Amino acid sequence: ELSGKKRVALIQADDRPKLLVNFSDDRASLLKKLEDLKASDVKGDADAALRLAISLFPPEVKKNIIFFTDGAFELSPDSVPAGVKLALSSTDAPCNLGITSLRIRPGTIGGRDYQVLVAVGNFSPQEETFSLKLWLGEKLINEEKLTLPPQKEGQYVYSVKVTSKAILKAELDSYSRDDLTVDNIAYAVFGGPRNLDILLVSHGNLFLETALGAYSGINLYVKNNASTQEILNYDLVIFDGIIPPPLNQGNVVCIGTLPIDLLPKNSGLRVNPVLTEWETDHPLLRFVNLNDTNVLWSIPVPTLPNGEAIVRSTKYPLMQVWQKHNLRLVFIAFDLYYSDFPLQVGFPIFIFNLLQWFHPQVFDPDYYQIQTGEDFPIPSGYERSEVTILNPHRQINKSKIESRPVFWQTKIAGVYRFKGETLFAANLVESQESNLISRVNLSGPVGSIQQQVQSRVITSKFSLYPLLIVISCLFLLIEWYLYHFPLRRNR
Q: Which pLDDT value is given to residue 326?
């Protein structure tokens, strides 16, 4: 209905808003882009979409932005810029049941007995009855009829035994109207059983041998030396006080030592370094308390280039991580026997975090399921190559893997496959997305956002150029008249 002189830009609003067409008056092209639009199974980001729209306008230009949405998100009226109109398209009483969480936890480390937690939300104005089914592969292993009050979430726990790599599917069957079906199914992928080969290069360390031997899924080997080539034969190599060979790839932990090429010249030792801070949010230090830890001496090594210090003393880091190409290195600057760290409650927790950080696919049961829109790490060995992954719609996605081996085309919920094998599952599982009730006007004062936006006064500077041109033309006209029709004067 716009006039022919109007130009329109189109933005697709999802987790990462995308400019489809910049300002154009080509109606055929605009309509084609609209017809080709497809919904994606990801969380929306209304603020990012509005920021992108605002950025398309030059400064001090009148803006006219129409946001087509169901309004099922929180948006403060104060954050809505002038010139924005919300075109709401939602039913008066949306009804939806959705799976808002699917988590799995092993009964024992290395065991095959799991606890499955399924959270279901009822985002309808009335009580809902539904059937919750669990499938392991093609086999139905559990079915239960449940009831939920309106606007409530329930959590249900089930025991599952898995002996090989398998796909678990949680499915909702609603007995009434359901306005969103993508959140009725969620998947979990169980990795196949695998033992890790770990080499401890040491003259003997009771603390490390005991902590590592506590896990049934580990094959522990102890030697007093290892070559550069030998490192590649193990999933993890720990050098305990023994200088390692030059490192170029592999998963390595150095305790109280470093390769010669990484040690500073004339470094010496620091006596009684004072531990000042540590990164509590780093995966290696999750649930690890270092408050009462004392160290007798440490190697004064500055933070390595592109490294990350996660435990610091007054001058030099006591623990840091370093990644370079195919090498992942954890450096602990002190000998365990010259500290009380192994006597702390957090030491066995740190060892578990260490194993999980190097091999999350073995120790993290949720490793193979992500939320739609998130990146998934590609198996090692495919750097700087093109990988082909089959998405849940059986469509082939090719992704060029650069230095960071991740797959990012995960906007469709379901199971993704790589080389004929199940790779990972992407699920929506988000309460805010399953709640379809329009909430954009709940956080503002009385009146709808549409009324507030439309009643805003848009101020702009008035240009004087047109007025000056008119005045100049009038003076020229007067001068022309006086030249051709001079005034008669009395003599």
A: 82
Residue in 295, 212, 293 with CA at minimum distance from that of residue 253 = 212
The number of residues in the chain equals: 491
What is the model's pTM?
0.75
- Number of Cβ within 10 Å of residue 134's Cβ equals 20
Cross-strand bridge partners of residue 218: 196
d(CA 327, CA 380): 11
Per the listing, tokens 């790490």 go with: 377
Given pLDDT bands bounded at 50, 70 and 90, which one contains residue 351? very high
Residue partners of 209: CB distance under 8 A and separation at least 6:
200, 220, 222
Is 162 in contact with 136 (CB distance < 8 Å)? Answer: yes
SS (H, E, C) 244-279: CCCCCCEEEEEECCCCHHHCCCCCCCEECCCEEEEC
- If one compares 267 and 151, the residue with the highest pLDDT of the two is 151
Report the 10 Å Cβ neighbour count for 295: 23
Residue 315, exposed/middle/buried by CB under 10 A (0-12, 13-18, 19+)? exposed
Q: What pLDDT does residue 454 have? A: 39
In this prediction, residues 343-353 reach a mean pLDDT of: 94
What are the residues whose beta carbons fall under 8 Å from the beta carbon of 490, sequence distance 6 or more?
none
Query: Residue 285 is encoded by which pair of tokens?
Result: 């230090």
